[in-house]
């Protein structure tokens, strides 16, 4: 069995897996502040451990995905502003409480591993190179190559949200202007359409309000640009889109594909990549980050043959 934990800004979810199948899932609210976050993790993990009927040190691997900057070698997390702490030696703290090694990674990297597994379930085939595009509060990507996270030489592979695409555009939190994140992210939508549930409100208003329609087009175009950047810089064939904005469902995928088609109609080279058919939307019901966290400590990510359809949870 493997145990994975997804630490989010509002909820923490733990899953237990065996043979590629999700056996148990449990979710609790995420506390604010270092100690509260650790309590949330232990609460969710303990519920799942009890359901499995075995101690923590009996799990083949235990992992956790968390937002912020993560040193995956040491398990130290820093700049987790939304969780209410600046630095936390999370790996060591959880290991001490569980009595077992706990692997810590960035939540987008964990979700990328989970997306890799989901593609295996959905297609019955494993893929050697996959990109996971997270459209959440910000925009970032995780890359999986031959079943393992591809971090690059400096650990920032996939941080494409801070690639400027509109030099005279909106000022980004990173200090540059017109970054992808200022177009295609939850924060971009909230800035453009500052209401409750802004993404859904924007989608609803787009048919009658030209400003809403332009903002929605920015979202689609920004996400499509991210897909092109991933395809052109890594040679990836499969891009799985996840994150909070996938709550928009089919219209999001349709809009991204439509924007990709428009660019392809103007460029034979881009058209030859057939990008629209390689973009997929991760189902909201699939706990990608928790599943990926369970696999972080694995020496081998299960192949498609090891991933029964019953695991779709």
TrEMBL record:
Pfam families cross-referenced by the UniProt entry: ROK
SUPFAM superfamilies, A to Z: Actin-like ATPase domain (SSF53067)
Family statement: Belongs to the ROK (NagC/XylR) family.
Name assigned to this protein: ROK family protein
Organism from which the protein derives: Arthrobacter pullicola
């Amino acid at each position: 069995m493997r145990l994975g934990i997804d630490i989010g800004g509002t909820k923490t979810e733990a899953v237990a897996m065996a043979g590629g199948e999700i056996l148990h899932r449990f979710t609790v609210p995420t506390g604010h502040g270092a100690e509260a976050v650790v309590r949330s993790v232990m609460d969710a993990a303990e519920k799942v451990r009890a359901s499995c009927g075995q101690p923590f040190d009996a799990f083949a691997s235990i992992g956790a995905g968390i937002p912020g900057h993560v040193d995956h070698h040491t398990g130290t997390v820093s700049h987790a502003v939304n969780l209410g702490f600046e630095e936390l030696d999370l790996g060591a703290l959880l290991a001490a409480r569980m009595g077992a090694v706990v692997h810590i990674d960035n939540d987008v990297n964990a979700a990328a591993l989970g997306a890799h597994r989901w593609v295996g379930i959905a297609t019955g085939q494993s893929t050697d190179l996959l990109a996971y595009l997270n459209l959440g509060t910000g925009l970032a990507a995780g890359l999986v190559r031959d079943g393992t996270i591809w971090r690059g030489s400096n650990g920032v592979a996939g941080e494409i949200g801070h690639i400027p695409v509109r030099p005279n555009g909106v000022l980004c939190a990173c200090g540059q202007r017109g970054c992808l994140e200022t177009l295609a992210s939850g924060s971009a939508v909230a800035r453009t359409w500052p209401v409750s549930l802004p993404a859904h409100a924007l989608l609803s208003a787009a048919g009658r309000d030209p400003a809403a329609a332009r903002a929605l087009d920015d979202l689609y175009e920004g996400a499509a640009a991210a897909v092109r950047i991933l395809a052109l810089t890594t040679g990836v064939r499969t891009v799985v889109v996840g994150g909070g904005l996938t709550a928009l469902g089919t219209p999001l995928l349709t809009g991204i594909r439509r924007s990709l088609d428009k660019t392809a109609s103007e460029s034979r080279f881009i058209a030859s990549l057939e990008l629209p058919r390689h973009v997929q939307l991760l189902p909201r019901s699939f706990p990608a980050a928790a599943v990926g966290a369970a696999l972080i400590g694995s020496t081998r990510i299960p192949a498609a043959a090891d991933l029964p359809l019953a695991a779709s949870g």
